[in-house]
Amino acid sequence: MTVRVALVDDEPLIRRGLAAVIGGEPDLFVVGEAGDGADVLDLVGRTSPDVVLMDVRMPRVDGIAATRALVRAGSPARVLVLTTFSNDDHVVDALAAGADGFLLKRSTPEEVLHGIRTVARGESLLFPDAIRELARRHVRAADPVAAPGLARLTERERQVLGLMAQGLSNAEIAGQLFLGVETVRTHVAGVLAKTGTRDRTQAVVLAYRSGFVPG
């Protein structure tokens, strides 16, 4: 399938570079660009992207607020946040707002393409060590979020969520638990339904923020 991509960054050179990388791939297509988060809702409404590459820092409306607006509007577009520093506290805020993962701006072209395809197929670009530590710091600094849906998880679903929080893919979880990949997908779907989260990234964020995964 062709993945439709929208680029949102206040630096034209970065947008141009990303467009050049993406444009060379037969399964990826840049459908539009914006230079500020204030223009995201209009851009997404006009172009219907599958994935939005979103800069976290922009002058008028930042990527966190723009991501939150997309989620509130019910957009199905998945958001991949771009940030300069892996220890940027804004990354955790963006994930909590509804982003599906993050990329460093110094990522290689191959990493960018992998990230786009990963979130486009419904998985998440989750928590390298630096981001996992940010999530833990975020949990320690804030009151735990109530998450009654977690109590409804089966033991197997709790195991799956714990492995999701480690950043494991469905195939890796299947290997750890000696299950089929389709069975893991079923358990992931159960986790999302019971916790009321829209995707696996948000389920993992909730796991950290609720204290299900110790900080």
- Using the alpha-carbon principal axes, give the shape: globular
Rg (CA only): 17 Å
Strand order of the largest sheet: 2-1-3-4-5
Largest sheet: 5 strands, parallel
**From the helix content, strand content and strand pairing, which structural class follows?**
alpha/beta
Give the averaged pLDDT, no decimals: 85
Beginning-to-end CA distance, first to last residue: 39 Å
**Uncertain runs:** none
Number of strands: 5
How much helical structure, as a percent, in the residues? 40-55%
Question: How are the secondary structure elements laid out?
Answer:
Blueprint: E1 3-8, H1 12-23, E2 28-34, H2 40-47, E3 51-55, H3 63-72, E4 78-83, H4 89-97, E5 101-104, H5 109-120, H6 129-141, H7 155-164, H8 170-177, H9 181-195, H10 200-209
Parallel strand pairs: 1-2, 1-3, 3-4, 4-5
Helix pairs in contact: 3-4, 7-9, 8-9
